Amino acid sequence: MDFAGVDYMKFLMALVFVLGLIWGLTLAAKHFGLGNRGPVKRGAAKRLSIIETMALDAKRRIVIVRMDDTEHLLLLGQTGEQIIGAGETAGQGAGQSQPQSQPMLHAIDMRRDAAG
Fold first, then answer.
1. Backbone angles phi, psi at 109, to 5 degrees
2. Are residues 59 and 108 in the same domain?
3. Signed CA dihedral, 105, 108, 110, 112: sign only
4. Range of the domain at 13
5. What confidence tens digit (pLDDT) does each residue in 41-79 have?
6. Is residue 14 located within the same domain as residue 70?
7. Euclidean distance between the first and final Cα of the chain, in Å?
8. Is the pTM of the predicted complex or chain greater than 0.70?
9. What is the longest distance spanned by two Cα atoms in the chain?
10. Three-state DSSP class for residue 45
């Protein structure tokens, strides 16, 4: 084998080694719950889930979170979080034409337009 072949073999072995390190660190991060990878708890008995997310603007987001068949409406921003609607039972507004949280969302949009 000439020197160029040895250099290519060293390069390939170093590449495989680095990719293996990245893969191993990714598995370790997932195991310890680092990063944004979704729910950590596995199985059928999940108590907490994100139902829906909507971006209001570049800095704020509305999130519906369900915990034990109760839904909470949260306003998330860069400076903090705010509970907008809490304690509504999941599926409560199914028979109504408009959800109960619609006036709250309209008020948030009006505040955004006034501030913007």
1. -65, -40
2. yes
3. negative
4. 1-37
5. 566 677 888 888 888 888 888 999 888 888 999 999 888
6. no
7. 68
8. no
9. 78
10. coil
Looking at the fold, whether 69 and 105 belong to one and the same domain comes out as: yes
Question: How far is it, in rounded angstroms, from Cα 43 to Cα 91?
Answer: 23
Considering the domain architecture, whether residues 33 and 52 belong to the same structural domain is answered as no
Distance CA(70)–CA(85), nearest Å, equals 11
Burial of 71 per CB tally in 10 Å (0-12, 13-18, 19+): buried
Give the CA count within 13 Å in the CB-facing half-sphere of 90.
14
Q: Is residue 43 part of a domain?
A: no
Rg (CA), the chain: 24
Measured distance CA(90)–CA(17) in Å, rounded = 49
Same-domain pairing of 110 and 86: yes
Both 31 and 60 in one domain: the answer is no
Give dist(CA 91, CA 111) in Å, integer: 28
The values of phi and psi at residue 96, to 5°, are -90, 155
In single-letter form, the type of residue at position 114 comes to A
